[in-house]
Write a structure and sequence with these properties.
By secondary structure, this protein is mainly alpha-helical. 66% of the residues lie in helices and 8% in strands.
């Protein structure tokens, strides 16, 4: 992903990913309720996302459509985290995650399946 989105921009994108294509006005209403942002803040962030190529704007009504999928952003953010914090070693990230939280037997089995699929 060539597009680097900041946390605030990801909040805008998250509304589009959850709710689908919608108006900037609706995004602003959702983010006012969820994080308390005013309309101007949200519109500024939407315009930043448009400039970065993450959102497409169409008329009438400042209609917004996500141009990048959530999975693409998740993968890029995960790769950046692995590179930045775990010396590029995914196994170090995996070990850190596993040591933080007690997993249920179902979660443990799902992880075994995922690892098995990678082999």
């Amino acid at each position: 992903m060539a597009v680097k989105l900041f946390d605030s921009e990801l909040k805008v994108m998250d509304v589009l990913w959850r709710e689908g294509d919608t108006t900037a006005k609706h995004i602003a209403e959702v983010l006012k309720a969820e994080v308390g942002w005013n309309v101007n803040t949200t519109y500024t962030l939407i315009k930043r996302c448009i400039k970065k190529g993450a959102i497409e704007r169409s008329e009438p009504g400042f209609f917004c459509r996500a141009l990048i999928a959530k999975e693409v952003v998740q993968e890029a953010e995960t790769n950046e985290l692995i590179d930045k914090v775990y010396d590029g070693c995914a196994d170090k990230l995996f070990a850190a995650l596993l040591s933080r939280k007690k997993l249920s037997p179902e979660q443990t089995e799902r992880l075994r399946q995922i690892v098995g699929e990678l082999e």
